[in-house]
Amino acid sequence: MTEIQRLLTETIESLNTREKRDNKPRFSISFIRKHPGLFIGMYVAFLPPWQ
User: Fold this and answer.
1) pTM across the whole model
2) Is 7 a member of any domain?
3) For residue 5, is it within any domain?
4) pLDDT, tens digit, 9 for 90 and up, residues 4-45
5) Are 39 and 32 in contact (CB under 8 A)?
6) CA–CA distance, 20 with 29 (Å, rounded to integer)
7) pLDDT at site 41
8) How far is CA 11 from the centre of its chain?
9) What's the half-sphere exposure (Cβ side, CA atoms, 13 Å) at 8?
10) Is 11 a member of any domain?
């Protein structure tokens, strides 16, 4: 199991380096423009429930 985990971790790290990803969340206006319904659904799900 540890060998599989090591291989997966190596692969993910190399992909992240190659694609210049840093695992930080980004706010994207283009996402809202392309998928307004999905954005609203995600925003509503993020809000705390009414009390």
Assistant:
1) 0.46
2) no
3) no
4) 999 999 999 999 999 888 877 778 899 899 999 999 999 999
5) yes
6) 20
7) 94
8) 18
9) 5
10) no
Residues contacting 15, CB < 8 A, separation 6+: 21
Single-letter amino acid, residue 40: I
Residue 51 confidence class, pLDDT cut points 50, 70, 90:
low
CA distance 5 to 8: 5
Question: Does the residue 16 lie in any domain?
Answer: no
Residue 42 tokens read as 């995600």
Tally of structural domains, the chain? 1
Is residue 39 within 8 A of residue 31, CB to CB? The reply is yes
Q: What is the pLDDT of residue 37?
A: 96
Task: Locate 21 and state its tokens.
Answer: 């990803």
